[in-house]
Write a structure and sequence with these properties.
Elements lengths: L1 E6 L7 H12 L8 E4 L3 H5 L3 E3 H4 L3 H8 L21 H12 L2 E8 L1 H16 L5 E6 L15 H19 L6 E7 L6 H4 L14 E3 L7 H12 L4 E7 L9 E5 L5 E3 L2 H12 L3 E6 L3 H4 L6 H19 L5 E10 L2 E9 L24 H7 L11 E2 L2 E2 L12
Parallel strand pairs: 1-2, 1-4, 4-5, 5-12, 6-8, 6-11, 7-8
Antiparallel strand pairs: 2-3, 9-10, 12-13, 14-15
């Protein structure tokens, strides 16, 4: 049979490694013929826009470049499939294109919304007696997928956040005047990535002095009290805050994506204005924005290698006839760190969220415990051997395969 792999949702440093995992593992099996890539996620299967990965990943140089390239080589999408039992038209189109290319297995690398797609496709295949399997491969810097210990992409994002926070600490500590620096970090519903900034404690850093997550209630009055308290012992106060922390609708755009998720931005700037008005010291806010998910020059080697491993494991699961599953990591130990790869029903993941454990938040709600450091630290280990050209990291770009507007 032939197979097809697609990438979806927000880009990460590790999503292309999972693509490599599927490709490299699939080439080892005589049962698998052509390995296709669907351009722009599920949209490629709808619009008949597939590329032959055997013609694109031609040698070891291509593999190495793809491994160090952030974002999605095949492009991405945020396309929500309808309920297959209520509206089957798009599913008929997808199946027609799969049959046109002799495809018997579909692999979707993505987050929660992508698992919704896998779940609906699997349901349609089974309702119609089709011999096609659908497997989900986890990906998200938010680390909010249930059933898996962690998600590919999170470790590299956490490494970037911690490294950047450390540089901000050095910059902020050079002046004699008191200051507050607020770092806004991605995390719409959960605070995993913001909490990961605490790994700096492993190197003896005291900052971030304050960490605020969406899982905990937030009060501007308490926030100001927290800052004033830290100012008693630290001249330069560093605050890490998740973009999803809620303390006023006026700081949200009111817009949503196709899956109904709110677009968030501006928490850091709002807190900056609050500190400026109420405390009056030097203050700045820094929004890390897309850099935290696509800064491959600071990627975690462990994250990249695990992403490739779980992509390969998905191929093995498909050849065993498994469908409607998502591949997951199960942590065996921290010392030494070890995980095993399993699979779970995708229904346990799609449209569900894994929140940061509230027991890992300090009693006063403004920081995280050492359990969070213990959890995150193994995931950021190791550095990639990045290839450079003219002093700049090289990227693999598949421009000719992307649709032209």
């Amino acid at each position: 049979m032939n197979i097809v792999v697609a990438q979806s949702g927000g880009p990460t440093c590790a999503i292309n490694s999972s693509l490599l995992g599927v490709f490299s593992h699939a080439t080892k099996y005589e049962e698998i013929g052509t390995i296709y890539g669907s351009v722009n996620g599920i949209e490629g299967l709808i619009s008949d826009n597939l590329v032959n990965l055997n013609d694109i990943i031609c040698n070891d140089d291509d593999v190495e470049l793809i491994r160090q390239t952030p974002s999605t080589v095949l492009g991405s999408c945020r396309y929500k499939l309808p309920d297959p039992e209520k509206d089957s038209k798009v599913f008929e189109t997808i199946v027609a294109n799969m049959q046109k290319y002799g495809i018997g297995a579909f692999f979707y690398i993505g987050g929660n919304d992508s698992m919704d797609t896998v779940m609906k496709l699997d349901r349609y295949f089974k309702l119609n007696g089709l011999d096609i399997v659908a497997i989900g491969i986890p990906k998200t810097i938010d680390n909010d997928l249930p059933e898996t210990d962690h998600t590919p992409g999170f470790g590299s994002a956490a490494k970037y956040v911690a490294t950047t926070a450390q540089e901000i600490i050095r910059d902020s500590s050079v002046y004699s005047a008191p200051s507050v620096t607020i770092i806004e970090i991605m995390g719409r519903d959960t605070g995993w990535l913001t909490a990961s900034s605490a790994v700096l404690r492993a190197n003896g850093e005291k900052a971030p002095h304050l960490i605020y997550l969406p899982e905990m209630p937030f009060s501007t009055a308490k926030f100001l009290d927290d800052v004033r308290e830290v100012q008693k012992t630290h001249r330069a106060v560093i605050v890490a805050v998740s973009e999803g922390v809620e303390f006023g609708e006026e700081f949200q755009s009111g817009k949503t994506d196709t899956f109904g998720h709110k677009y968030l931005a501006g928490v850091g700037k709002a807190l900056e204005k609050l500190v400026s008005t109420e405390i009056g010291c030097k203050v700045r806010s820094i929004e890390l924005n897309v850099m935290q998910r696509c800064s491959s020059h600071l990627s975690s080697k462990r994250d990249i290698s695990e992403a490739e491993r779980i992509g390969g494991a998905a191929v093995a699961a498909a050849l065993e006839g498994k469908s409607g599953k998502m591949m997951v990591f199960k942590r065996v130990a921290n010392h030494p760190y070890n995980v095993r790869i399993e699979c779970v029903d995708v229904t346990k993941v799609a449209n569900h969220v894994k929140y940061f454990p509230t027991e890992w938040v300090t009693e006063n709600g403004n920081n995280v415990t050492d359990e969070a450091v213990e959890y995150c630290l193994p995931l950021i280990q190791g550095e990639q051997n990045i290839r450079y050209k003219n002093g700049i990291p090289q990227h693999f770009v598949l421009q000719h395969a992307l649709p032209h507007k």
